[in-house]
Design brief:
The chain is an alpha/beta fold. It contains 14 helices and 14 strands. The relative contact order is 0.12.
Length: about 375
Amino acid sequence: MSTARIAILGTVGVPAAYGGFETLAENLVRHRETLKTPPDLTVYCAASAFASRPARYRGARLCYLPLRANGAQSMLYDAVSLVDAVLCGHDRLLLLGVSGALALPLVRCFGRARIVTNIDGIEWQRAKWGRLARAVLRASEWAAVRFSDEVIADNAAIARHVSTRYGRACHTIPYGGDHARATAPDPAGAEGLPQSYALALCRIEPENNVALVLEAWSRLSAPLVFVGNWDASAYGRALKARYGTHPSIRICDPVYDPARLRAIRDRATLYVHGHSAGGTNPALVEMMQFGVPVLAHGCIFNRETTENAALYFDTPDDLIRAVNTLARRPDAARQTGARMREIAERRYRWAEIGAAYFALLDPAGAREQDVPAPDQPGNRAA
């Protein structure tokens, strides 16, 4: 049996230092090392994101492109990656996100590679996009579902969307979170912070309800540490200026180093998750590993991720009530935290997730390796 040649596309690249897809790619590279017969694996990377550009990382070949993986160039970056991967002889393609999916019909014309696409969230529904961008992303989603051999959703609600809108079966494979506790903490990460606090951590965008969380906390006395890229937009800078001097709120710049981030998470006694779009959010499943109560926006994606066992809010008043409830009922807070950790350890483990991805990418190889099937009962959309 010939060795499968797999390409991972659609991310900034590895080593991971940016977001959820990068962490996924990193853990797939690591999982490859555990297989009896590791496939030939290539990860496409944005050259500008890496000061050092080694040819390989943990046995995977790295291919650098002179394009940005995010922003206006993301569609071209993904499309060029797809075409190059086929021309270079890869017979398995894992496309993360739909930005480059409009190139899939072209890839189908001159290549016979097996294409597996993780469509991410329902990207065209995000409030930050204008009318034209939404139309393009909608078309890209359609192309991803239509021209991929297998489609992956990271959340059961996304899988239902694919089933309802396109009549297509969709595998549900979430993100892992156990890596968040695997790194020893660097005490410098929490230097200058209180000994305990509520923690919020996200990109500073309206759909993550940053303003809602800050408004609620400005009426509370408990400390909040809020980590994010505040200076990346006018929205973030305005909120930083408004709330940055509030005595209960500590505004912190983004932290990407795993050891420093671990130290920050270790001190958290509560996690506030304002995301209202997308699917299974990596920051949420990572924080669930720490066994603290979760207060999450009440959207269907967060409810699916936490099995309706967290506390939920839709308004500042909801959030204030939830915080006060947990303060009055420490036993309930401990039980909620324990439930979050139980769910995380059962559902969001990279060993099982990596096995599921490789089973879809290389079914014959997966059978040879005796890898479990990618879907749990009930997780495949009808």
